[in-house]
């Protein structure tokens, strides 16, 4: 380009007309943005019979939930449901808490039961009107008593249980059959006590020629689940019922930790394995939450899944639960609130299809439904409902909570053999102490 | 700003000419700024203020309060958060991990990037291929890179252990895990420094080498006395950029191993996130971030000071 042509370019400042056009464009953009924002704000404020539903089902269960909502919409054309799926874990709770704090939350949300105590019921959550539930035919006696009690705080119900999702013990039939561990129905025989359990693992090791158990001692969260389940089998509790005191029995905890460490030390389980990859490629057993059922089914594996075997005295298996909650709204009530109760009642009553995504339905009539009983392997671990061991009732507990990170890491260290079981117990004690000494950031709920 | 000139219309005539010129100068300069690019910079400045300056200030305020995520029960507590953080073993542990990571990766990046750049610069055939191959990993998002390395490090059927035919505890033991993180990060990010070095190598004039060769300098001497000093500035830049990036390391470590085992690779950023978003304690998390912030600013100032010293030396 010559010097001349450069000089003949218009001055670099924008022309008045161009500027106006630009401003108009920006304005239009802003207007678009604000209408979108207003749209959601208006519906958050609760147009009659228009309800927002926030959930965290981003996996296979998400598609399932959307299918259920479509059926709901078809059945209740008068109720408009807008569902939003947010990323699972911390981020979901972050958003729900902030929305509840501002009193502009969605009508309905999902929470993990273990998180309820820390979610300031009465302040970030509104109580559920059991009268409205009863109108929809959903009653307290339709739920497991322990589950219902955990969702009840100071006599008010804050969460309607949709399911429980227990820790399960998966077994690969191809590996267990030659080891003589299957009964006539192709189900795993009862393994009681740690010795019988390890004998069975040894037998399977013989058959498959590799480590017999998929269990990831490297992951703090997974160690926490395993510990909660096995420790509950000893009959002990970790915290007192009001979540204020440590009630951990050191000897029992040490026994459980020693067992977890033995699984790693004697190479029953290799930490860091991808569990699906392991079992699908000829592994023996896997200890993990029930939602891997979907992955194993998709891989076409012939497998079974049952609650944890009883290794330490009394049957127990760790479990979490999805509960449907009413996040705090200023002036909750009216048609939208009734519609919200209609929706949550409908969801639990129709949780048969929810069970397909592997969770155990909390609504007992569904749990006894012949169609559910016919589902394999879902119905095989339905007994988890009666032996579920939930997280201790404290603000720092529940799915992806501080306890999983802070206590879990010490459990993992003990399982990995970095510290002795006795040191591990001392560590988890001090981690629990630190957590108890930290003030609940959300404060107590109004009612508790 | 436009009010400067009209504010003193009556007296302007009696004023010395210089002062009037100054007032006009400001206006003229501002006018020029807005004619030449001021409007173009404005959107950036707005975004900069909104997403950088404002969070910086509000973060400082949070750190002086017992702030939680939901914004309820907030209480002014002065420096208590800082006091707690300075006495918090976990904060020091995680900060130590971050520093360890930084100390390991920075020299490695410099050496490997320089080596790769020399290779790519001097190789005769398929230059474009080597450039692409060394730089390509840098383009991967951290999630993809983490998934890739998680599988490579898989204890039983991972590619590495399978090839070595040995069960190396890549992610299972603290020291190994930190090394594995460094290795994965090196592979992932070395391309950027490699590119900087390559550019620096290409800008070294050939006649220097020719003259040195005439004087009888061998390849090693030429490299040590010409190449290395000529890329010294770039080396300084890479070291500082690398330190600054490594002090903020988080995603790949979190995605591969969640900072495990036994928190031995947990970087301080992960601890901040755990406190702020898992534990809801935004105030405390802000206080820790400010401690890290001070560290990062200190590194930057040190770099500025060194550059100034060197340029004074040269001149």
UniProtKB/TrEMBL annotation, chain B:
InterPro entries linked to this entry: ABC_transporter_permease, MetI-like, MetI-like_sf
Keywords: Cell membrane, Membrane, Transmembrane, Transmembrane helix, Transport
Membrane topology field: Multi-pass membrane protein
ABC transmembrane type-1 domain mapped to chain residues: 95-303
Feature: compositional bias, Low complexity: 1-16
Region (Disordered): 1-20
Record-linked Pfam families: BPD_transp_1
Subcellular location: Cell membrane
Organism from which the protein derives: Streptomyces litchfieldiae
Family listed: Belongs to the binding-protein-dependent transport system permease family.
Protein name per its UniProtKB record: Sugar ABC transporter permease
SUPFAM superfamilies xref list: MetI-like (SSF161098)
Transmembrane segments: 37-57, 101-120, 132-152, 176-199, 230-250, 287-306
